[in-house]
Automatic annotation (TrEMBL):
Domain Response regulatory positions: 20-132
One Pfam family of this chain: Response_reg
Upper lineage: Bacteria, Pseudomonadati, Myxococcota, Myxococcia, Myxococcales
InterPro entries from the UniProt entry: Bact_response_regulator, CheY-like_superfamily, Sig_transdc_resp-reg_receiver
The organism of origin for this protein: Anaeromyxobacter paludicola
Protein name (record): Two-component system response regulator
PROSITE patterns for this protein: RESPONSE_REGULATORY
Keywords tagged on the record: Phosphoprotein
The keyword Phosphoprotein is annotated on this UniProt entry: yes
Keyword hit for Phosphoprotein: yes
Residues annotated as signal peptide: none
4-aspartylphosphate PTM positions: 70
């Protein structure tokens, strides 16, 4: 049986609606550049400057299809955000693509995909499409 969030995603994909993405990054210029790049490719995009703001946005409505998450942020960092997201039954199904310059020995188990900054747009687009296609 699908949860409310899963049903919303299934309905959106079935109707051909655009994929929704939440970009979470404290670097305003980078976040805005990525958001515009995504919008230019047909994604519906929201932005948050840190994990706390991202959780506030997610609490206001259904989970987005994909969260693009930086790990190194002041306030609530990406690691803490991931832990809180996965601990919340309503938000846990959200797909997360980590996009970070932070050196990480192993990709976070809580993430669905991992891309290092700076990224190659074509590679990022492939990974994002794969994660979005598998939205829970």
């Amino acid at each position: 049986m699908e949860s409310g969030g899963e049903a919303v995603h299934a309905e959106r994909r079935a109707s051909g609606g655009c994929v929704s993405v939440l970009v979470v990054d404290d670097d305003a210029a980078g976040r805005e550049l990525l958001a515009e790049w995504l919008r230019g490719r047909g994604y519906a995009v929201e932005e948050a400057e840190d994990g706390e703001r991202a959780l506030q946005l997610l609490a206001q409505g259904p989970c987005v299809d994909v969260i693009v998450l930086d790990l190194a942020m002041p306030g609530m960092d990406g690691w803490t955000f991931l832990a809180r997201l996965r601990a919340d039954p309503r938000l846990a199904p959200c797909r997360v693509l980590v996009l970070t310059a932070e050196p990480v020995r192993n990709a976070p188990a809580e993430a669905d995909a991992f891309v290092c900054k700076p990224f190659v747009p074509e590679r990022f687009a492939v990974v994002l499409s794969r994660v979005a296609a598998n939205a829970r």
